[in-house]
C-alpha cells in the first residue's frame, strides 16, 4: 500500500469513528435519562465511558451544539438544550421555519447568486471559493463535521459574495444559522447521509468556466440531494 492509500484509509477510519461516537452519544442523551436543562457528564467522564480521545469527543459535542441538542455554558459545563434533533421576530420566524420553507428560500437565492456569480466573479472570488471547497471536502473525509459545515456554508457565501450584490449577500447571511442547524441535523443521520461533494466541485467548475446553465443545474441538484 502506498502512502496516498494509507492517508485515505486513515481519513475513512477517523470519519467512521466520529460517526460511531455520534450515534452512541445521541442514543445516550436521548435514552430518557436526561431532560432539558440537565447537565451532562464532564469530558473526562464521557471519554472514559465512550473510550475515546478528547478531540473526537469535542468534535461530536460541537455537532450536537450546532444541531441545537446541547448548549455549552462557559465555566459551567454542557447542558441539554433540546431532546429533539433539529434538522428579533424575524430571527424567531427563521428559527421556527420548516426545512421546506428554508429550502424554498434558499433555492431562490442560490439560483440568483450563481447566475450573477458566473457573470461577475473575479479571480479573487474564485480563489476564495476554491479555498472553502477544499477545506469542506477535506474536513468531511476526516470526520471534522463542525469544520465541514462551516466551510460548506462559507463556500456558498463566497458564491453569494461573488454576485457583487450586497443585498443578496446579506440575505444569504441571515439564513446561515438555520442552514447550520439543518446541515447538522443531516449529519446526525450518519447511516444515510448523502455526500454531495461532486456536485459542489461541478458547481465551482461551472462558475469558473462561466457556464450559467450548468451552474444553475448543480445549484438545484445540491438542494434536491438532502
What does this structure look like?
- This protein is mainly alpha-helical.
- Helices cover 73% and strands 4% of the residues.
- It has a two-stranded antiparallel sheet with strand order 1-2.
- Helix 1 packs across helix 3 (54-66), helix 5 (99-120) packs across helix 8 and helix 5 (99-120) runs antiparallel to helix 10 (212-224).
- It has ten helices and two strands.
Task: Briefly summarize what is shown.
The protein has 226 residues and is mainly alpha-helical.
Question: How are the SSEs ordered, and which strands pair?
Answer:
Layout: H1 3-29, H2 43-50, H3 54-66, E1 70-73, E2 77-80, H4 89-96, H5 99-120, H6 123-142, H7 145-162, H8 166-188, H9 197-208, H10 212-224
Antiparallel strand pairs: 1-2
Helix pairs in contact: 1-3, 5-7, 5-8, 5-10, 6-7, 6-9, 7-8, 9-10
Total helical segments: 10
Counting helices, strands and paired strands, the structural category is: mainly alpha
Low-confidence stretches: 1-10
Main sheet: strand order: 1-2
Please indicate the percent range of residues in DSSP E strands (runs of 2 or more): under 5%
Largest sheet: 2 strands, antiparallel
The helix/strand order is HHHEEHHHHHHH
Distance between the termini: 35 Å
User: Can you count the beta strands?
Assistant: 2
Helix % is over 70%
Please give the radius of gyration in angstroms.
19 Å
Shape annotation = elongated
Notable traits:
226 residues; mainly alpha; 10 helices; 73% helix; elongated
Amino acid at each position: 500500500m502506498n502512502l496516498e492509500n494509507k492517508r485515505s484509509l486513515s481519513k475513512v477510519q477517523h470519519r467512521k469513528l466520529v460517526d460511531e461516537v455520534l450515534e452512541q452519544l445521541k442514543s445516550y442523551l436521548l435514552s430518557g435519562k436526561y431532560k432539558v436543562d440537565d447537565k451532562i457528564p464532564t469530558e473526562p467522564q464521557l471519554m472514559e465511558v465512550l473510550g475515546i480521545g478528547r478531540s473526537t469527543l469535542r468534535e461530536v459535542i460541537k455537532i450536537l451544539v450546532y444541531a441545537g441538542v446541547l448548549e455549552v455554558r462557559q465555566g459551567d459545563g454542557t447542558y441539554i438544550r433540546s431532546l429533539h434533533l433539529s434538522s428579533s421576530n424575524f430571527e424567531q420566524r427563521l428559527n421556527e421555519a420548516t426545512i421546506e420553507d428554508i429550502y424554498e428560500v434558499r433555492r431562490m437565492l442560490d439560483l440568483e447568486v450563481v447566475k450573477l456569480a458566473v457573470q461577475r466573479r473575479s479571480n479573487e472570488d474564485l480563489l476564495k471559493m476554491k479555498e472553502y471547497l477544499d477545506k469542506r471536502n477535506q474536513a468531511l473525509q476526516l470526520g471534522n463535521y463542525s469544520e465541514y459545515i462551516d466551510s460548506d456554508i462559507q463556500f456558498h457565501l463566497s458564491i453569494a459574495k461573488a454576485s457583487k450584490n450586497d443585498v443578496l449577500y446579506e440575505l444569504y447571511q441571515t439564513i446561515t444559522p438555520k442552514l447550520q442547524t439543518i446541515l447538522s441535523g443531516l449529519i446526525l443521520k450518519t447511516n444515510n447521509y448523502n455526500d454531495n461533494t461532486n456536485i459542489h466541485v461541478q458547481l465551482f467548475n461551472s462558475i469558473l468556466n462561466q457556464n450559467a446553465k450548468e451552474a444553475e443545474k448543480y445549484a438545484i441538484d445540491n438542494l434536491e440531494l438532502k
